[in-house]
């Protein structure tokens, strides 16, 4: 049998623990009696996680399942599965309950993308009547990587509902998404787990993404189907390499002109949470999370000049390269 994961959900365990040494006795108890059942559903089939729900019949006092990699695994004996004796088990989870109600269990399992898995499920009554062993098969999604491309970030105007400096608030602006090249100059970025660069002509302030200083670096969060940008693309002239500057959000960041300094704020109470781009199951980008730009006077103490503009939630529209 291939490598498997074993989970046990336990209720009134006295009968079953005793029965684990008496397979023959339990077999006799099964004769002529109604067997318990377990409803099993796969609620989410992702690339790195599966969410499953188990609902046992009213007569069941315990139930268990195990997760196996691959296809065509030999089904375990029900009693072995319920007693934790199924060979090859490498993890277990036991839940006890004392109420008269039979519980429903929902579990999230972390798996590998693009792989075959099998679940085996069994139950037992308080009197020791065993269920049949049920088999459920699933293939996880292949890992999703949004493709490179140019996008317009569309967001609702904040002017004049908010006190913002940008009188053209709500005008879409350009974003370019690129993979980080696998070359020596970019090794500090790649070795830190970063995969993407997001260049923003934020609020159309810089004329193009090439001229913009706002190049964020991020990674693919497979569990939440989004790209997470929590650092900035920086160049070290001494070493000739690019590296991640992580203090991006919630602090003074750069000089806009000779009199003005800007800062970027992400989500959260302190504005220091990263910017995310969500994507669908096919890797199509969907939404940008909160991103705010504030202006400060380039003088002692950096007096605040106001909020320039903010994306509360932005939608992403792909555009052709020639339309940039």
Describe the overall structure:
By secondary structure, this protein is mainly β. It has 4 helices and 21 strands. The protein has an 8-stranded antiparallel β-barrel. It starts with a strand and ends in a 5-residue tail after the last strand. Residues 10-19 and 89-99 have low confidence and may be disordered.
Question: Cα distance, first to last residue?
Answer: 55 Å
Helix-strand topology string:
EHHEEEHEEEEEEHEEEEEEEEEEE
User: Which secondary-structure class do the elements indicate?
Assistant: mainly beta
Mean pLDDT: 86
Spatial ordering of strands, largest sheet: 9-10-11-12-13-17-18-21
Main sheet specs: 8 strands, antiparallel, barrel
Provide tags for this entry:
eight-stranded antiparallel β-barrel; mainly beta; 4 helices; 8% helix; 324 residues; five-stranded mixed beta sheet
Quickly describe the structure.
With 324 residues, the protein is mainly beta.
Write the layout of secondary structure elements.
Elements: E1 4-9, H1 14-19, H2 23-30, E2 38-45, E3 49-56, E4 60-69, H3 78-83, E5 94-95, E6 105-110, E7 116-125, E8 134-139, E9 149-154, E10 173-179, H4 187-191, E11 196-200, E12 215-221, E13 226-236, E14 241-245, E15 251-257, E16 260-265, E17 275-279, E18 285-288, E19 291-297, E20 304-311, E21 314-319
Parallel strand pairs: 1-5
Antiparallel strand pairs: 1-4, 2-3, 3-6, 4-7, 7-8, 9-10, 9-21, 10-11, 11-12, 12-13, 13-14, 13-17, 15-16, 16-19, 17-18, 18-21, 19-20
């Amino acid at each position: 049998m291939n490598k498997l994961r074993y989970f046990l959900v336990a209720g009134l365990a006295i009968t079953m623990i005793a029965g684990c040494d008496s397979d023959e006795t339990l077999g006799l108890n099964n004769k002529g009696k109604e067997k318990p059942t377990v409803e099993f559903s796969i609620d989410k089939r992702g690339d790195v996680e599966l969410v499953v729900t188990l609902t046992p019949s009213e007569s069941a006092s315990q139930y268990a399942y195990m997760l196996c990699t691959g296809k065509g695994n030999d089904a375990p004996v029900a009693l072995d599965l319920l007693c934790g004796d199924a060979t090859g088990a490498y993890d277990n989870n036991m839940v006890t309950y004392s109420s008269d109600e039979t519980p429903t269990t929902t579990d999230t399992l972390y798996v590998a993308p693009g792989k075959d898995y099998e679940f085996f499920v069994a139950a037992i009554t308080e009197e020791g009547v065993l269920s049949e062993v049920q088999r459920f098969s699933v293939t996880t999604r292949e890992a999703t990587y949004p493709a490179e491309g140019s996008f317009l970030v569309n967001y609702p105007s904040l002017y004049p509902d908010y006190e913002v400096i940008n009188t053209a608030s709500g005008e879409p602006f350009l974003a370019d998404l690129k993979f980080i090249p696998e070359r020596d100059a970019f090794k500090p970025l790649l070795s830190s787990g970063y995969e993407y660069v997001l260049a923003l002509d934020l609020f159309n302030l810089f004329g193009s993404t090439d001229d913009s200083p706002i190049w964020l670096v991020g990674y693919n969060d497979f569990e939440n189907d989004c790209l997470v940008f929590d650092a900035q693309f920086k160049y070290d002239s001494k070493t000739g390499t690019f590296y991640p500057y992580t203090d991006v959000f919630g602090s003074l960041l750069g000089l806009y002109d000779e009199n003005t300094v800007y800062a970027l704020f992400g989500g959260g109470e302190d504005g220091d949470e990263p910017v995310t781009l969500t994507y669908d199951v096919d890797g199509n980008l969907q939404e940008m999370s909160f991103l705010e730009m504030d202006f400060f006077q380039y003088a002692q103490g950096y007096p605040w000049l106001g909020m320039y503009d903010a994306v509360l939630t932005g939608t992403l529209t792909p555009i052709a390269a020639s339309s940039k």
